[in-house]
Amino acid sequence: MEIEQNIWGFSPEGEGGLLYTMRNASGGEVLLTNAGAALVGVRLPNGDGTLTNVVAGYGSFAEYIDDTVGMGKIIGRASGVISRGRLTIDGQTTRLAVNRPPHHVDGGRKGFGARMWEARTEVNRVVFALDSAAGDEGYPAGLRTEVIYDWDDDNHLEITVVAQADGATPIDITAAPMFDLSGEFTPSSVARHRLQVNASRYVAMRGDNVPTGELLTVEDTDLDFRSEREVGDLDTFDGLIGERGGLDHWLVVDGWQRSILAKVATLTDPQSGRTMNVYSSQPALHLDSANAMSGSGARRNECEYEDHSAIALHCMALPDAVNQPDFPSIVMQAGELYVQKTVYEFL
User: Fold this and answer.
1) Is-above-0.90 flag for pTM?
2) Which of 36, 275, 325, 337 would disulfide-bridge 113, Cβ 3.0–4.6 Å?
C-alpha cells in the first residue's frame, strides 16, 4: 500500500488542506481530505489500465470548504434528525442547535462535516481526529472522535468510527459518500443501477421528516429492494419514493445485532460490470438519491451535478432515536467506547 500526502489548499483561517491518495497493488485509489474527513474519490482500474472514479466529489479543496451538500463528508455528532432539537438523558433535558427549524439535523449548524480535522497516517491507513467540547451545538458532553480509512489490495474500503465522551451524550457518526459505479454521474446512469437491500421494514416519516415511531413493512411498496431490482427513473414513481422526490428513506437492517458486522446491501451497474457490497454494524441504511443537487452549485470538472445523479448508501442509526424509545439507543455513557464500522467492497 502506498499513501501520498499533499497540500491541497488553505481554509479562510489559514489551516492547511490535505489531500491523501491511498493506492493499492492493483492500482485502485482512495482519495481523502481533512475538510470534513471527506471521501473525495474512489478510483477503480479498468481493463485498459485507466481509472474510473465512482464516488461523487469536488475537484478542489476550496469547494470542500464552500460545500453545502455534505459531499462525501462525515456526519456527526448525530446524523439524521433530532425532533425539535430536544433530547432527555437521565431526566435532564437538553436543547440542541436548530438548523432546520424547528429541528436539529446532521449535527447542527456546524456539524462534523464543516470542521477541519487533524490527520495522520498509520502504515496502511489514514486517520482523522476531532475534539468537540461540551456545549458544541448544544450537546451535553465533550467528545473525541477518530475516523479510520483502510484500503486493501482487494478493493475493500473500511471506514471505522471510534468515539468516547466525558459524559452521557447521543452519538451517531456516519460517512456520507455518494456513488455511481459507472463514473458517469447522470440520472440515467443511476436509474440503470440494480440494488438489493437486506431490509424488510422502513422508518415511517411525517411530512416534516420526523419519524412517527412506526417501522412498516416494505412489502407492496416501492421501497421493496429485498430482491435485486433496477433503481429506475426516480422522477416517475408515485408511491413512497414519489412523495419525497426520490430516494430519501431509512431501511431497517434485517437481523441486526449490536456491534456485529453484517451484509446490508449490494449495488450493481450492468454497463460497467461493477458491483459494490456494503457491510455495516449499524442498524439502518439511509438511501439518498441526491435529490437536492441541482442548483446547489456542486460540480466536478465544470460539470454541475444534477438531481438523482448519484446514490448514497449511508449506514447509520435510526433517525430521532433519542426521542423514540422503541428504536435502538444511541446514548453513550461517560468513558463508554463508541465503535461503528462500514465496509464498501468493490468487485
Assistant:
1) yes
2) 36
